[in-house]
Amino acid sequence: MKKRFSNFGMSTILVVFAMMCIVTFSVLAFITANSDYKLSCRVAENNSSYYQKCVEINNEIAEIDYMLYSAYTSTSSRKDYFNTAASMLSDENGSLTQDDTSTTFDISRQITDKQSLYVTLEIIYPSHQKDTFYKIKKWQLTTDTSLEDDDSLNLIGGN
Q1: First-to-last C-alpha distance (Å) of the chain
Q2: Is 94 left (phi over 0), alpha (psi -120 to 50) or beta?
Q3: Dist. CA 130–CA 153, nearest whole Å
Q4: Is 148 helix (H, G, I), strand (E, B) or coil?
């Protein structure tokens, strides 16, 4: 008598294999989606921190603009304007640099522990009251990406 091979066992193995594949791909898709979500949250947090610092710097620039306007309207000469502007800006958060050819004001804000925003304004003497009192020379986001060299070599079972 011949034994008949039943297809019942083969179809069960195929269904179990298909279910294992579906579960595996589902877990991988969940892990990928979760890591993408965490990354997008970090990017959104970094972007909001950056734009918050940009708003702070723009508000400070608006205050500086008003100070320079009042220095311009209260003085009659270029030299008096720069002296008055320098005394007004010395009270602000930033560093004032003056030399024979230019006057600059540097503003810096820490965004994260590794990112900083640097802005440099060049203070100018306008020829008319409606002209600008400064030029933005630098608006730079710097990132500290100093990496430590890792010379270790991890071997399985090695000392």
Answers
A1: 64
A2: left
A3: 65
A4: coil
Tokens representing 77 are 């000469």
Contacts by 123-130, CB closer than 8 A, 24 or more apart: 123/68, 123/82, 123/85, 123/89, 125/72, 125/78, 125/81, 125/82, 126/72, 129/72, 129/73
Whether 114 and 145 have beta carbons less than 8 Å apart is answered as yes
Token representation of residue 129: 């009251």
Residue indicated by tokens 């090695």: 158
Contacts of 97 (CB under 8 A, 6+ apart): 103, 104, 105, 106
Task: Kindly write down the DSSP assignment for every residue of 74-104, as one continuous string.
Answer: H-SSHHHHHHHHHHHHTTSSSEEEE-SS-EE
Is the Cβ–Cβ distance between 102 and 121 less than 8 Å?
no
Q: What is the pLDDT along the chain (159 residues), one digit of tens a residue?
A: 566 656 567 788 889 999 999 999 999 999 999 999 999 999 999 999 999 999 999 999 999 999 999 999 898 888 888 888 888 888 777 888 888 788 899 999 999 888 999 999 999 988 887 888 999 999 999 988 776 666 777 777 655
